[in-house]
Fold this protein.
Amino acid sequence: MLRPRKVKYNKARKIRIRRTEQRQTKVVFGEYGLKVLDGGQISSRQIEAVRRVIVRKLKRTGKVWIRIFPDVPVTAKPNEVRMGRGKGSVDKWVAVVKPGTVIYEVGSTKEIAAQNALMSAAKKLSMKCSFVKR
């Protein structure tokens, strides 16, 4: 699973998504991409699960680029613990995604195979996605 090697502060505040993405909205590396229509958080486990689905559907023919990285820690306290006593320990790492962000790209494969792979991989995510071309 993806996670940063070293961070300056090991616990972060909650990030709120207020507007749409301005920078990562176009397909740059490959020919086809998966664009997020809703904002939210994508965990490192979800990123890996989507990558596996794409690679399996393409049958190792195309190239896959992951455009997001989980660099925000999310903390959680154990079950049945009373309130207080500080913030919980780091539970998982997430990537905060704004609406309109291209999160995966696929290249050097046919359009039908890329669309099939990306849309079946989008079912692993908890947000609406769309297939985009360069």
In short: The first strand starts at residue 32 and ends at 36. The domain at 32-75+89-133 is CATH 3.90.1170.10 (Aldehyde Oxidoreductase; domain 3). The helical segments are 44-58, 111-121.
